[in-house]
Structures are given as C-alpha cells and as structure tokens.
Amino acid sequence: MSAKLPDVPPLLDRLAAGLEALLADEGRGRCTLVGIHSGGVWLAEALHQRLGLAGAPGALDIAFYRDDLARSGMQARVRPSRLPLTVDDRVVILVDDVLYTGRTVRAALNEVFDYGRPAAVRLAVLVDRPGRELPIAADVAATRLELPAGQRVKLQGPAPLRLVLEGGAP
Amino acid sequence: MSLQLDADGRLRHFLTTEGLPRALLTHILDTAESFSGVIGKSVKKVPLLRGRTVINLFFESSTRTRTTFELAAKRLSADVLNVNVATTTIKGESLVDMLHNLEAMQADMFVVRHAESGAAEYIARHVQPGVAVLNAGDGWHAHPTQAMLDVFTIRRHKGAFEPLTVSIVGDIRHSRVARSQIHALNALGTGEVRVVAPRTLLPRDVEGLGVRVHHDLDSGLRDADVVIGLRLQRERMQGALLPSESEYYRRYGLSEARLAVAHPEAIVMHPGPINRGVEIDSDLADGPRSVILEQVTNGIAVRMAVMSLVLGVAPESTPEAT
C-alpha cells in the first residue's frame, strides 16, 4: 500500500526557480552547489546544468560523519567526497532529496567545515518531510510530504529520477 | 576463521588475510579508497570513531607500524593509548589480567604486535564481546594490514588483479608479510603469484600457499608486473641460512639491471625498513619504479578502513536518517 507520490520533473522546475531567486540574492559567482549522496548528487548535477553555473557541482558522502556508526555499521560503499573549489568565503548550497530528521544535514555541515570556512551554507531539498530532530530548515523546498513514521521516501535515479516509498506503515 | 567474522560475514577482528573472501577484501580496499580523500581536506580528520578508545599493545617494538596505526586512529578521532609492553614489566600480571585491566579503561580496540605467532588470535579469544583486535604482526604468522596496504597500492597502479604476475623476493620463510600478501593476492584473483628465494628461506609448505617457486632471480622476475622485496633479518646470516650479505645481494638483490627482464612498467615495493644494498639497490628504491613511500601513505587509509569496519559492526541494521 503506497501513497501517490508527485512526479519529479515539476518538482525540479520548482526547485530550480527557488534556487534562481537564492542565487540572485547571494550572487551567482559566489555560490557552489554541493549534492549529498546519492539523491542530492543527481539533483545537484541536474540543477547545475539547468542553472548554467560554472565549473562542476560538488558531492558529499557523509558516511564518515554519521552519528550512528555503532548502531548501523559502515555502509557497503562510501564514495569519496569532492568539493570542486575551496569553500572559503563561498556560499555553499547543499542539495538533498529529502529533509526529515536533519541528521544528514548536520553531518554534511560538519564535513563542509572540515574543508574550510564558507561565507554561508544554504539548503535546497526536493521533499521537506516533518519530523525534525535538530533545528535545521530548508531555504528552498519543492514540496512538503507527510508520511507515517515507519515509511521512508527517497529519490531513485539517476535516469529517470523518481520518488519511491520504502518500508510499511507502523 | 569464524573468530574474525560475525554471523553475517562482517569483520569483528582483523587477525589474518587467510580465508577471507574476495568480497570482504575488496570492501576493505574500497573503504580505504574513500578514506584516502580525507587527506585532501584542510582538516585531515573525520569524527567516525569519536569517543572510542584504541590501545596499541606492542609486545615487540615497531615505531613505524605503531605510528601509522596511531595516526589512523587519530584521523578517525579516536583516543589512542600506547602501551609498550616490551619495555615495561608486567609485574606478575598474567596477559589476560592485563587485558581485563585495559578493558576496564573502556578500550574498544587493541592493536597487537607480538613476536609469537598466534598471539593476536589468543588475545581476540579473551577480550570481551564488542572489543576488537587488530593484528599488527605476530611472529612468522601474519601481518594483515601490511598485506592490505600492499594490495591497495598494487590496485591503484595496476587496476585489476587477474592479469598480474606478482613476484615476492626474499625471506619468505620468516615473513609474516609475505604469507599475508600471498593469501590476499590469491583471494583477489591475481593471475600468478611467485616467490623467489634460496631453499633455506622458503617454508616447507610453500607450494601449498598457491605460489610458483623460483630459486633464480632472472626467471622469477621475468615479465613480472609487480616486484616485492622483503626485508632480510641480519640474524639469518648467523643462523647459517645464508652465506653472507654480499652473496645474497649478488643472487637475490633487486636493482635496475636485474629488473630488465620484468615488465617495462613493473612497480617495485618493499614493506620497509630497507637494508639498502642487501635486498634492494638504492637507485631502484629511490627511483621512478619504486612505490615504497606510497605504501607508507596508503597504510594510513587502509588502517582507517579496517578500524572503522571492525568498530562499525552492528548487531542489527537501522535505516539511514535523513
């Protein structure tokens, strides 16, 4: 039994529009898109191209910054993080597929600050889901979804991009 | 063997490369590859083992190995204690009593170096559940992290293992490094693993290790893609296993000239420390074919990978938070 999930292309249009406004506010030349593995990286790559940004987007795998190693163990495959430019004095725009508890974003913030001291960090997500465990909010969100606690929503990709549900209702 | 793996086949301790499945060895190499990126950041640390305690328990001194384990643990944000048992008396305490005392200090991992074969396994059998043991070299038995950093270095230079011929030259008989390398290389599917040594420096069961034996350096190095020189302990000369250092160098010493028969792009490795002019000529050790210093650097990433894998073993999996 699964709820009807929205299609990704219109959400991507909305996310791109929100990011255009953010880039205008912050100054395009100062901004670097950084996707969080895996869904966030696919989104960052699509958005980077669509927004016509220079260089290449960055990618973060926050596996080494997780706070639950003892509970869930090392992930099967950790992809190296790559930040294309120095982050010092730049506006880092983190991109992820789903914002839920906020723990992934917390880990990503810690990792970004190990590369340098950005001028600011912003957050853009495809899906904003209630259930925050930390004081973290998205600057741009394409949609908001409420789901039962036992269910997860995630992005499948890279082509085509689509949202899927995992886990049953409690 | 099940001592170092849990019911799901995940690493609980790291005592030997013998019998480990290819998938697990590849997982260690892939994880090490990710950790090598940590060195590129301005803060060369990750918080993965924050709050964990690693005790380097060295019954046999080895500054280099201890230092790389210590650096690996610190790069993972663990707290590290160095207990050099070789220079401190145990004062009548039995080994197991000493372990329990150290465990009472909330140790999460022991890195054990010992002159006796099987010492790391003995300790692994006596630690509390949840405490991990890494073998940092025991007698003639095993040195699994050294072997993994060697195969990591090979993979970085050569890619796949299947087409490779790897020649290990020197004192195979007394080498825990060679034994661990051979097990790892065979498990990873290496095309051909050769050992090159005089009869006195080969173990009796050498063919049983799955290697081709050469007593002549020229035939042993022919078309080799990877050449690994082993350290020669000077006491082997006194033990009548070898006539002299100069005779050994003449017959088995590695040099640019002797490597002429190897593959033109062959790399040269050595676990260190080197006896220059005995196992290997300085020009070769410091030359463009040599990856000896890369091995040292890679050792940190590989040890970070093993430490995080053994302390990351969880009884049950929980979904990733977002």
UniProtKB/TrEMBL annotation, chain A:
CDD domains: PRTases_typeI
GO molecular function: glycosyltransferase activity
Pfam families (UniProt xref): Pribosyltran
Domain Phosphoribosyltransferase: from-to ranges: 20-140
Keyword S-adenosyl-L-methionine: no
Keyword set, alphabetical order: Glycosyltransferase, Transferase
PANTHER family found in the cross-reference section: BIFUNCTIONAL PROTEIN PYRR
Protein name: Bifunctional pyr operon transcriptional regulator/uracil phosphoribosyltransferase PyrR
UniProtKB/TrEMBL annotation, chain B:
Binding site for L-aspartate: 91, 176, 231
GO annotation, cellular component aspect: cytosol
Residues binding carbamoyl phosphate, per UniProt: 64-65, 113, 143, 146, 272-273
Every Aspartate/ornithine carbamoyltransferase Asp/Orn-binding domain range: 164-309
SUPFAM superfamilies per the UniProt record, alphabetical: Aspartate/ornithine carbamoyltransferase (SSF53671)
Location of the Aspartate/ornithine carbamoyltransferase carbamoyl-P binding domain: 12-155
EC number: 2.1.3.2
Gene Ontology BP terms: 'de novo' pyrimidine nucleobase biosynthetic process; 'de novo' UMP biosynthetic process; amino acid metabolic process
Involved pathway(s): Pyrimidine metabolism; UMP biosynthesis via de novo pathway; (S)-dihydroorotate from bicarbonate: step 2/3
Record-level Gene Ontology MF annotations: amino acid binding; aspartate carbamoyltransferase activity
Gene3D superfamilies (UniProt xref): Aspartate/ornithine carbamoyltransferase
Pfam families named in the record: OTCace (PF00185), OTCace_N (PF02729)
Superkingdom of the source species: Bacteria
Keywords assigned by UniProt, alphabetized: Pyrimidine biosynthesis, Transferase
Catalytic activities: carbamoyl phosphate + L-aspartate = N-carbamoyl-L-aspartate + phosphate + H(+)
Family statement: Belongs to the aspartate/ornithine carbamoyltransferase superfamily. ATCase family.
PANTHER family: ASPARTATE CARBAMOYLTRANSFERASE, ORNITHINE CARBAMOYLTRANSFERASE, MITOCHONDRIAL
HAMAP family noted in UniProt: Asp_carb_tr
Quaternary structure and partners: Heterododecamer (2C3:3R2) of six catalytic PyrB chains organized as two trimers (C3), and six regulatory PyrI chains organized as three dimers (R2).
Role summary: Catalyzes the condensation of carbamoyl phosphate and aspartate to form carbamoyl aspartate and inorganic phosphate, the committed step in the de novo pyrimidine nucleotide biosynthesis pathway.
NCBIfam families from the UniProt entry: asp_carb_tr, PRK00856.1
Protein name: Aspartate carbamoyltransferase
UniProt source species: Sediminicurvatus halobius
Classification of source organism: Bacteria, Pseudomonadati, Pseudomonadota, Gammaproteobacteria, Chromatiales
